[in-house]
Design brief:
The chain is an alpha+beta fold. It is 44% helix and 17% strand.
């Protein structure tokens, strides 16, 4: 008890806990944890899963060739390479190869020349095994017309022996090379030769191809599309066999560095290490790619190959001085994002921006431009385009549906019964699109763009029957205008087009048939062509469902969103189970394109407000006409 007048003294609290001496070590520990996780993700991303295989079919040619020997002989090379050389032709039990190809990925990726498969109704890859020929249907993943290249994917989850890529930018002209191919009977064709010249240009089918090598190892059409390999079994390039004057075959090769630079966004190639300096007296022979200088020096000393004039088998060329070389710096690898080069990143962003502007200006056609652009300018096949388009639509129309729901425009009692039909339509459309092939899909896309062109031209000629000006709609913010891509506006109450009249007269009774008519067409168009399908759904909602324009657009955004979710799931499940796609490529492409489409939609919405409607229709008509011509005349 404290007495009155007593002085109370307070002492300083020196409790260790309150001074928090753990604060700095804890921050350091947290930083180390973050760094550890970052390093772990880097290791997982860069880990070369092809280094440790359980069977020979999963080995690269170079690994199989070098695993038990210190020095290579030519006969062993001849026996080891053919399992990775395939025959490529049209489908059918008795079909024979029309070209050769090289397996460049353990899970069945094949590179060959584009002109040999461009006109085939279906593609069949013949793999030669000790137990006989195995045939697999294949799909085009990506084409590069400027270098006459195509990347195919066998529709199988099996693994195969494949080529490691020699991506050294410097080519030595006199090094021994071996050109492989397949004949009509399926037997391997091979010839040894040298690289005679480099940096050549050639006209193939009207396309100018540059950065070519010329080799006397290519002597027959049977080697066309096949691999040119070095003494280590690494792939130096893909052969082009052309018939020159007098019927003689001239042989050229597309360097491996060019192949990797164009397809690294799809496939993680296994590449050889840069060659080290050859031992004195080795002449024109570089140190074996992918091995250390000490290992190669030991092997050479053991075989006395370091002595001038004494060769090992047929795989070494002795010489007194260095041979002529050529360096290709144009295709040297620079910055990449998951394999996508900086130029392709900007190109994809520009394409997405243009598609977004097109959709924002006229609220339709953006998806057509995106799909056609990915096919024409980047050479991607529909197997890759569809999951990219579905993912993009999930993001774009998910935001649109959320916004429309907040505004109270979505009629859930109308939309909910349609969702299963739209989902079923997109799944059916996906498999139909896969079955008919990219060529037919390209034609259908061209016809679709042509119809959009004619529609725009008719509206320019007959302004009284034109679509309703967006300014007359209930005002919405720029975000909502941007999210309305691929969705047409209604016709005015005055003059209507013939298609609108037909839809208005179409009588569909309530029930499953009505739900199917309102839901399936959108899903089918989306699944086959890869576009959103809103360009079909809004008129159906408007004139078959008798729903107002604002609600039709809102309902369509919800339906497109769920159809795109289903399309994404099916495309990834089917694509990964059959080995056609790896999740990384479509996800990366979608992440690149979504921001561009969003910003483009905002810009298009602003242009719609400031430019005359007739000018917008003219720009749109020209864009759709260009797409139609390009797709129909490919």
């Amino acid at each position: 008890m404290i007495e009155t007048g007593e002085t109370i003294e307070f002492t300083e609290n020196k409790t260790v806990f309150c001074e928090r001496p753990w604060k700095v070590p804890a921050m350091i520990l947290a930083l180390l944890v973050v760094v550890t996780f970052g390093w772990g993700f880097y290791i997982l991303d860069s880990y070369d899963e092809d280094d440790f295989f359980g069977s020979n079919t999963d080995l690269s040619v170079s690994q199989f060739l070098l695993r038990d020997v210190a020095a290579i002989d030519t006969q062993r090379l001849y026996a080891t390479v053919p399992p990775a050389v395939v025959g490529v032709g049209s489908g059918g039990v008795n079909a024979v190869p029309s070209a050769a190809g090289a397996i460049v990925g353990a899970n069945g990726y094949v590179v060959t020349t584009l002109h040999t498969v461009a006109n085939l109704p279906s593609i069949d890859v013949q793999v030669y095994t000790p137990t006989g020929v195995k045939r697999f249907p294949a799909q085009v993943v990506k084409t590069v017309p400027t270098h006459d290249l195509v990347l195919l994917k066998m529709q199988t989850a099996e693994h195969f022996m494949f080529f490691r890529m020699d991506t050294a930018p410097t080519i030595q002209m006199t090094q021994p090379v071996f050109a492989f191919g397949r004949n009509f009977g399926g037997s391997a064709v091979v010839r040894q030769g040298t690289v005679q010249s480099a940096n050549l240009s050639l006209d193939v089918g009207g396309a100018q191809i540059s950065h070519l090598l010329r080799s006397d190892a290519v002597y027959s059409w049977e080697q066309n599309g096949g691999p040119l390999v070095n003494t280590q079994g690494d792939l130096l390039g893909i052969n082009i066999a052309l018939q020159g004057p007098g019927g003689r075959v001239d042989g050229f090769t597309i360097p491996a560095q060019v192949v990797v630079s164009h397809f690294q966004d799809i496939l993680r190639f296994k590449t050889s290490q840069p060659a080290a300096t050859a031992a004195p007296g080795a002449g024109t022979v570089p140190v074996a790619a992918g091995t250390s200088g000490g290992w190669w020096a030991k092997a050479r000393s053991m075989t006395a190959a370091g002595t001038p004039g004494q060769a090992v088998g047929m795989n070494l060329v002795q010489g007194a001085g260095p041979a002529a070389t050529w360096t290709d710096n144009d295709h040297a690898s620079g910055f990449t994002l998951f394999g996508t080069s900086l130029s392709d990143i900007f190109g994809l962003l520009a394409l997405a921006l243009a598609a977004g502007i097109t959709g924002g200006m006229m609220t339709m056609g953006g998806g057509v431009l995106q799909v056609a652009g990915m096919m024409v300018f980047f050479g991607y096949g529909m197997y890759l385009i569809r999951p990219v388009a579905f993912l993009t639509n999930v993001a774009v129309y998910g935001a649109s549906a959320w916004r429309n729901n907040k505004s109270g425009l979505v009629q859930w009692e109308t939309v909910t019964p349609l969702v299963p039909w739209g989902v079923g339509g997109v799944i059916l459309g996906y498999f139909i699109g896969n079955a008919i092939g990219d060529s037919v899909v390209g034609v259908l896309l061209g016809i679709f763009a042509l119809l959009m062109t004619l529609k725009a031209v008719l509206e320019i000629i007959n302004p009284d029957g034109a679509v309703e000006d967006a300014k007359s709609l209930k005002p919405r913010d720029d975000l909502e205008a941007a999210m309305a891509a691929d969705q047409p506006k209604a016709a005015t109450d005055g003059v209507e087009t013939a298609a609108v009249n037909w839809l208005s007269r179409l009588k569909v009774a309530d029930g499953p048939v009505r739900m199917a008519v309102l839901g399936i067409p959108m899903g089918l168009i989306s699944g086959i062509l890869g576009i959103s399908g809103g360009v079909i759904e809004v008129p159906l909602q408007r004139y078959v469902g008798k729903i107002g324009l604002q609600n039709a657009i809102a309902n369509s955004s919800v339906l497109v969103f769920w159809a795109s979710v289903a399309g994404s799931v099916v495309a990834f499940l089917h694509g990964t189970s059959t080995g056609l796609i790896h999740w990384q490529a479509p996800v990366t492409l979608a992440l690149l394109m979504i921001p561009g489409a969003y910003v483009g939609g905002l810009l298009g919405a602003q242009l719609m407000r400031v430019l005359p409607i007739q000018a917008l229709k003219g720009i749109y008509a020209l864009t759709m006409a260009a797409i139609a011509l390009k797709m129909l005349l490919r």
